[in-house]
Specification:
- The chain is mainly α.
- The chain has eight helices and no strands.
- α5 crosses α6.
Length: 129
């Protein structure tokens, strides 16, 4: 799913960066109790070569807390986190140039973003169902 999104964005000459939630952010946003009890996920975590190191840093626990948990519980903080991860890439003159091109109106860009998000959501639903 991530590779497909990355590929689609690359076609538009848009970079892609994985965003993860840090241990500090888990504490900051009160997500400590959100662990993934899915046996498949737990098995994957146990096979991970970093499992022992992770356990040592987390009181012997293996857990996985996805960044979208933050979106579900604190959407405003999620948006702030994402915006913060891209702000250092923003270049005003490039933005102005793109926005001046009728091919890349804010409406067409929003449409492309919505289409990518829908693809991602549909793919994610397929994994859950």
């Amino acid at each position: 799913m991530v590779r497909n999104l990355e590929r689609d964005l690359k076609k538009l000459d848009i970079g892609f960066e994985h965003v993860a939630i840090t241990k500090e952010q888990i504490a900051q946003y009160g997500l400590e109790d959100l662990t993934n009890p899915d046996p498949t996920i737990i098995a994957k975590l146990r096979r991970d070569p970093n499992a022992n190191s992770f356990r040592a840093q987390n009181n012997g626990k293996l857990l996985q807390i996805e960044v979208d948990a933050l979106n579900a519980l604190r959407p405003g903080d999620f948006v702030t986190l994402l915006e913060g991860s891209i702000d250092h890439y923003f270049v005003q003159n490039i933005y102005d140039e793109v926005m001046a091109d009728p091919q890349y109106s804010s409406t067409s860009i929003r449409r492309l973003v919505r289409k990518s998000i829908k693809k991602f959501s549909d793919y994610e639903k397929g994994l859950q169902g």
